């Protein structure tokens, strides 16, 4: 009787093992035609061009549509310089065409930007322009504060007169100004 039970158990175990082994699915191999390009649509399809220089991602602040505050946009420049940021601020309409950086320096978290000219846009417009320049430079150069000069003198308009000790600081609530 024992032999019979051992044989029966052996047969049952072999059948259960045979039922548990995975079977290989049948895969039909077809190659795409010569005009068909295979693509997963993912990041692996986007191979960077080895001949292109790396770009610096920057944050640019510019006036929003209704003129009540600022929008923030991400852009890229070849190299992070004051000239590159001013060129982007001109491109985004914050500064006037032809505005140049006469000098830029930073030390101990404080930057000084000397521009060739700055637009006068009226009370809220001047504040929005200064905030856009300040936020752009402070964020990208990781400054605590920024001094804006125009031709070596403190920024002055009909409504804003900056003194020697007046600095721009990052404005967190940039979406509504004034």
Q: Estimate the global geometry from the Cα principal axes.
A: rod-shaped
How would a crystallographer describe the biggest sheet? 4 strands, mixed
Helical run tally? 3
Oligomer: single chain
Please tell me the overall pLDDT: 85
Q: Level of helix content?
A: 25-40%
Strand-residue fraction? Answer: 15-25%
Low-confidence stretches are none
Computed Rg: 32 Å
Strand-pairing-aware structural class: alpha+beta
Tally of extended strands?
6
Run of helices and strands = HEEHEEHEE
The separation of the N and C termini measures 98 Å
Give the strand order, joined by hyphens, for the main sheet: 3-4-5-6
Annotate the secondary structure layout.
Elements: H1 2-20, E1 56-63, E2 70-77, H2 82-91, E3 101-107, E4 110-115, H3 123-140, E5 145-150, E6 153-154
Parallel strand pairs: 4-5
Antiparallel strand pairs: 1-2, 3-4, 5-6
Task: Walk me through what this model shows.
The protein has a four-stranded mixed β-sheet with strand order 3-4-5-6, with helices on one face. The chain has three helices and six strands. The protein is rod-shaped. A hairpin with a 2-residue loop joins β5 (145-150) and β6 (153-154). The chain is an alpha+beta fold and 178 residues long.
């Amino acid at each position: 009787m024992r032999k019979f039970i051992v044989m029966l158990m052996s047969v049952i175990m072999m059948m259960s093992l045979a039922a548990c082994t995975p079977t290989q699915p049948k895969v039909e191999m077809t190659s795409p035609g010569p005009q068909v390009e295979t693509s997963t649509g993912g990041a692996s399809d986007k191979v960077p061009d080895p001949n292109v220089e790396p770009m610096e991602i920057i944050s640019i602040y510019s006036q929003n549509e209704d003129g009540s505050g600022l929008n923030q946009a991400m852009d890229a420049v070849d190299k992070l310089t004051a000239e590159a940021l001013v060129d982007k601020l001109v491109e985004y309409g914050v500064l006037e065409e032809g505005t140049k950086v006469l000098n830029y320096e930073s030390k101990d978290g404080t930057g000084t930007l000397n521009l060739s000219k700055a637009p006068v846009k009226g009370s809220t417009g001047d504040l929005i322009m200064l905030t856009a320049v300040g936020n752009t430079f402070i964020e990208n150069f990781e400054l605590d504060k920024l001094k804006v000069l125009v031709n070596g003198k403190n920024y002055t308009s009909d409504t804003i007169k900056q003194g020697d000790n007046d600095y721009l600081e990052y404005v967190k609530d940039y979406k509504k100004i004034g």
